[in-house]
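Example record for the data management plan.
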Amino acid sequence: MHWNDVALIDQYQKGILPDELKDELVRQSIPEDLEKTEGYPEVYATSEVPHKPHPLELLPVLTDESQDKGDSLLLSMLDPPMAVAMQQEGGRHFPTPSSCSLSHLSTDLEHSSHCTIHWITYRYFTAVTTISDSQTLTELLKTVKRMFFLTVLSMWLLVFNQDQIVTSYTFDNCEVHEIFQNKTKVLCYNRHLSEVPTYLPTKLVFLDLSQNSIPSLRKNDFKNFNYLQALNISQNKIRKIEDGVFIHTSHLEFLNLTANQLQCLSSSMFDGLMNLTTLLLASNKIYRIDPSAFANLGKLKVIDLSSNRLYTLNAMHAVFNVESLKELHIKDNHLQDFSTKDIISAPPLLHELDVSYNPIFLINITTPVLHSLISLDLSFSSASASILWEIEDPCFLQGLKALYLGGIAMKPPEISKVIQMLNCSQLEIIHLNQLNITESDNLIEEVCQWQQHVQSLNFQGNMFTSVKAGAFENCTNLKFLNMSFNRLKSLPMTSFQSLNLLHFISLSNNISTPVPITTPNVSLLESLDLCFNKIHNISSDGFRHLNNLKTFYINGNHITSVHSHNFGNLNKLQELNLGQNGLRTIKQPFSGSLNKLEVLVLRQNKLNIIKKGVFKNLSSLRFLNLADNQIAAIESGAFEGLSNLQTLILGHNKITEHTFHEETFQGASSLTDLDLFNNYISYESSDVLTNPPFKLLRSLNKLKINSQGHDGLKNFPVNLLEGLESLVQIHAGNLAISSLEPMTFSFTPTLQELDLSNNKLNSISSMLFGPVSRLKELHLNRNGLNSLSFFLHANLSRLTLFRATGNLISVITEEQINTLTSLLFLDLRQNPFTCTCSNQMFLQWSLQNPKTQVLHFCQYTCAFPQKHRGDQLWTFKTSSCFIDCEFILYIANTTAVLSLMLVCFFYQWKLHMIYMFHLLLAYYVDKKQKRKGQDMGFDYDAFLSYNTHDEKWVMNYLLPVLESQYCWKLCLHHRDFKPGQPIIENIVDSIYASRKTICIISRHYLESEWCSKEIQVASFRIFDDHKDVLVLIFLEDIPTEYLSPYHRMRKLLKTKTYLRWPQDEQEIPLFWHKLNMAMKTGDGKEDENSVLAVFVPNEIPH
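Corresponding structural encoding:
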């Protein structure tokens, strides 16, 4: 039993394999004869092809015991004396093939066919030798017959074996990735799948099948995935999940079934998932859950049933019975009543409950069933009317720490009342966003009065225009405050005077014009968000009290200039975002107090120059983003002092080749990531540069120089990369370069990833990759490449990923593939492959190679030859491309056996053979004499056979047209018969002397004895000469019953040419034309029934 057995694989995939064989096949998921790849998942599969019966299924079942038993089975087909002789003498003259016996035929078809041929060859030679010593000629003839049967059997095996499926590492519609430590991730999302693939690696850990069209999950879909830990099968069309589908995935911890069409959750649907911790079932159509649906999910912590049809809490009893549950999401389920009396019991560890986006009109807390609840989300959960709250005992929710009431249809007094009712809960997080609250509602004051332990307040999206002085007076523990998306114009100094513990405040998207914070009471503030306001300038003392500020977002305002004193007191600032402000220039260096700044964002401004020393005080800066400006000049020393800078983004500016000079990047000695995409760098030639721009960047790891404007980079100077001795990645796509000098990468010996996509590199020198022997990833997409011959001397033995999609590659050779010894992923989509034997190696390698995964191989199509255009490459049959030595041996064996049979046959029947020879010789001489007579020609073109009653028609119509118009020479009874010669002899001689015989059929003709003789003679000539010499003309319609006695006539009507005399005068010209064409036809069978020839008007008499 082996995976290569087609019948077993087909039974296994259909789920009809006997139970005793299933476990054995699972253990044999990897063929023993294939070497496992160290450090990479052992991934093998079988191609999906229709199963055809194994030819050996028709033979007796063979046991895999020994060579002798296998041979004895075949010997049993022979005569007993012959079998004994062959057993005794077989080994002396021809060595027995020890590795082949018929007992192996049922396990390996290809091996079996070869073994059969070896066996026949061996037995043939031993039989000839043995019989010559001890057997009779009769026994030899019997043996030859049986050998001939075995030869036919071996031929059958060989032909059947040509189209057998092969072990494959190419996955249709899926990609396999190794995460770490041999853990495999398989991505099959958005691939139009209609079922779960069965050909995936069995040791996969993560499987993504989302965004497909899978309608159901069947019991055996995940049978082989025993190591699966995370399964994402969201956004499909799953209506049904069979019971026990997850029985073999006991290690599964994460299951995502979001956005399907499930309606009911049965009691056995999730059996086997004893380690599941997260179950996502949102956006289905679930309306019923079996009480024991989650009974066996002992470790389940998170359930998401949002956006279903569970209209009441009574429908969710099964969910609340999960003892280990910590987090439950049931938002958007059309719940109208949230009452604890409908919850019989709740998990003791349930901490988070999301009931948002439900049209709730009643919240009734009458039992302590939710006493352990920490977070309750009721956001946007209300109908058009206000929600009625009934809390029997405030301490029923005494553990509640977070309450989300954003967007709820309640007026401020009602919200205040709810906050007051929860006085037994020490709320720390309260969200009151999007409630149209204004400062006159005094809700801030009331919240701080009743919930003095609150640490986070969210008033985002309300209608505040200001904050009253002392509004937060009682919120002394407040740490996070969000007042964004309001209408704040200004904040008085006393607004936050009591917020001594405030760490984060967001005032973004208001309409403030000055910087709104000047109070010294927020000295512990660490994060300040003022983005997208209408701030025009920053005062010198605006932030003098924010000594602990670490992140400051002031992007999206109208600040046009920055001075060194603007941020003078921000000694601990680590991140500053000044993007999208319209900054035109930075004239002065940033303040020396920013010596701890690590991230500076200046993107989307109007900077056109970077002046010398502007960043010299930012000694801790690691990330500098200057993208989307108008920078065209960089002064010497512009990056002076940035000794710790690691990432510099200069993309989408107006930098040209003239911007660079010898000291452009001086001071940025630690730079590891440089982004220059979408600028205007261009070189007129690839000659050596006097001042290579990156010479000082010896620590640089990543360089992005792709997508240069105007006409692109055009040329790649040979020493452009000089100094980049630590470079690991280069992104140089879309540069319009057509060639690269062989020494281009000689300055980057550590290069591991190279992207040259979207260029014009239709040919590449093999010397180009010589200096980069550590290269692991190479991208050459859409370059116009027509060959991969540069691989032959490229020294890319460490390459693991190669992409060359959208090129003109038609043939991949074995030599090219063999140079990529470490290749794990190959992507050659959208190339015009040739479906001929020149690609047979690549085709078989793609399917059989156990190491390299050819991505999307089943999408590769043929472009040549024309008959295969549009066909999928993998369907091309390569059986005709091989010179099979075994098949040649078979031909030799067959020829020898047949020759021996002929010799023996001739010896036994030699007298009969001599007689047959002379008989054939006589037949040949007779045919030769007839052909010689025919070569001498005919006396007439046609003999006319007609009855005297039809003579008037013949003389008035037929004879003038054929002889006068068409110049045919006709033979007539009264005119051309020889006088004194018997009539029958005249008839026979005239018919054989004429090229054709025309019979004029009428009722009188059928009643005439002489006419019958004439048509019989003509018929004999047809059978004798095998020529079409007869033309039948019907002068009148004759019913079938009149022809019944004339069997020969009826037979002629079915096979020979015949015409009807038309009654319509307008059809008479066409009749003569057809008759003339019938006279012109030759005598061969290919000319039969050809009278309906092309109508030629000028040949028709009128």
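Summary line stored alongside the record: The chain is about 25% helix and 15% strand.
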